[in-house]
Design a protein that fits this description.
Blueprint: E1 2-7, H1 15-30, E2 33-37, H2 41-45, E3 49-52, H3 83-92, E4 97-102, H4 104-115, E5 120-124, H5 140-161, E6 164-169, H6 176-185, E7 189-191, H7 199-210, E8 217-221, H8 249-261, E9 265-269, H9 281-299, E10 305-310, E11 313-318, H10 319-322, H11 331-338
Helix pairs in contact: 1-9, 5-6, 7-8
Main location: cytoplasm
GO biological process, one term: fructose 6-phosphate metabolic process
Cofactor: Mg(2+)
C-alpha cells in the first residue's frame, strides 16, 4: 500500500515518534510506501507532500514538533477542500489510505471525510489530554514535566523573596495540565476551567501559606473563569480561525492577590514552552505504540477508527467516541487535590 500521513492542529511532542513507528512498521512488516502531507489538510488538498523513507524517519522518536509541519487548515472551508477534491488527489497520486494525527477538530474532519468515503484512520493528539475515548494522549506527559520543572524553579525564587508566585499554564476548556503539574509541584492552589473559585478563597489559601513563612504557589489554567465572571479572559484578540486567543488570567490573578492581601506577587506564563522540546520517555513509547497500531488498522481497512489507550492496552475505537464532548476534570479529582490547598 501507499499510505499518507498528516499532522494537523497544534503541534506537540510525540508526533514525530508516531510518524517514525508507522513508517518503519509499514515498510518492514507490509512493504508499504509512505508520503507525508505538508502542513496538515492543506498538504492533502494541494497534493503537497514529501516521500517518507526509512532514512527520513531515522532517530525521530526523540525529536519534538513535526517534520511534516502543521496548520489549522479546515478540510472543507479551505479553497479546493472537500471530499471530492481530496479523493481525486489520493487517486491521482496512488495513495490508498491516510493516517490523520490530530485533536478534536482534526479528528472530527477525518470522521466527516470517512463518512464521505475517504479511507482514513485517526491518531489522537493533544497536550491538554481532553479527548474522550482514550485515557491519555501523547504530549500530555511532556507538558506536565515541563510545567512541573518551571514551577519547581518558581518555588525557589519565590522562597528567596518571600513572594507569592503564580504560574499560568495551557488549558482552554480542561484543567488537566494545571491539576497534574500543580499537584506534582506541591501548589497551594490550582484554578481550572471546570471549577469556579472566588478570589476571596484563593487569597485565604495564599495567606494561610504566607503566614507560616512559606512562599505560596498558585497554578491557573488559561481558561479559568473566576467566580462572578462570564467567560475566560481573552485580551489578545482572535486566532486566524476566529477562536478567542486566551491568556492573561495569570496576570489578573496576580494583581488580585497583591491588591487583596498586600503580599508581593509575581506571574509567569509558560505558554508555548509547554508544547516544545523533546518528548518524555513515556510519550515516546505511547506515540510509538499508537503509530504501530494505526498501521495495523490501515491494513484491516478499519476506516473511521482511531487508536486509543485503555489502561496499558492500545485498542481501537470509533472516531465518534472521541468526539462526544471533551474529557474534563471530574469534580472528585479536583476535590482530591483541594485537600492540600493552603493550610
Amino acid at each position: 500500500m501507499r499510505i499518507g500521513l498528516l499532522t494537523s492542529g497544534g503541534d506537540c511532542p510525540g508526533l514525530n515518534a508516531v510518524i517514525r513507528s508507522a513508517v518503519l512498521h509499514g515498510i518492514k512488516s507490509y512493504g508499504d510506501e509512505f508520503v507525508g502531507f505538508r502542513d496538515g489538510w492543506r498538504g492533502l488538498i494541494e497534493a503537497d507532500y514529501m516521500e517518507l523513507s526509512r532514512h527520513n524517519v531515522r532517530g525521530l522518536s526523540r525529536v519534538g514538533g513535526t517534520i511534516l509541519g502543521t496548520s489549522r487548515t479546515h478540510p472543507y472551508n479551505y479553497p479546493g477542500g472537500g471530499p471530492q477534491n481530496m479523493a481525486k488527489q489520493l487517486k491521482r497520486h496512488d495513495i490508498d489510505a491516510v493516517v490523520v494525527l490530530g485533536g478534536e477538530g482534526t479528528l472530527a474532519g477525518a470522521k466527516r471525510l470517512t463518512n464521505a468515503g475517504l479511507p482514513m484512520v485517526g491518531v489522537p493528539k493533544t497536550i491538554d489530554n481532553d479527548l474522550n475515548a482514550t485515557d491519555f494522549t501523547f504530549g500530555f506527559d511532556t507538558a506536565i514535566s515541563i510545567a512541573t520543572d518551571a514551577m519547581d524553579r518558581l518555588r525557589t525564587t519565590g522562597e528567596s523573596h518571600h513572594r507569592c508566585m503564580v504560574a499560568e499554564v495551557m488549558g482552554r476548556h480542561a484543567g488537566w495540565i494545571a491539576l497534574h503539574s500543580g499537584m506534582a509541584a506541591g501548589a497551594h492552589a490550582v484554578l481550572i476551567p471546570e471549577k469556579r473559585v472566588s478570589m476571596d478563597q484563593v487569597c485565604e489559601w495564599v495567606e494561610q501559606v504566607h503566614s507560616r513563612g512559606r512562599s505560596p504557589l498558585v497554578v491557573v489554567a488559561e481558561g479559568f473563569i473566576p467566580d462572578g465572571a462570564e467567560e475566560a479572559l481573552a485580551e489578545k484578540g482572535e486566532e486566524a480561525s476566529g477562536r478567542p486567543r486566551l491568556g492573561g488570567i495569570g496576570e489578573w490573578v496576580t494583581a488580585q492577590i497583591e491588591e487583596l492581601t498586600g503580599i508581593e506577587t509575581r506571574n509567569t506564563t509558560l505558554g508555548h514552552i509547554q508544547r516544545g522540546g523533546n518528548p518524555t520517555g513515556y510519550d515516546r513509547v505511547l506515540a510509538t505504540r499508537f503509530g504501530i497500531k494505526a498501521l495495523n488498522l490501515v491494513h484491516e481497512q478499519a476506516w473511521g477508527r482511531m487508536v486509543s489507550l485503555r489502561g496499558t492496552d492500545i485498542v481501537e475505537v470509533d472516531l465518534n467516541a472521541a468526539l462526544e464532548g471533551l474529557k474534563t476534570v471530574p469534580a472528585e479529582r479536583y476535590e482530591e487535590a483541594k485537600v492540600l490547598f493552603g493550610r
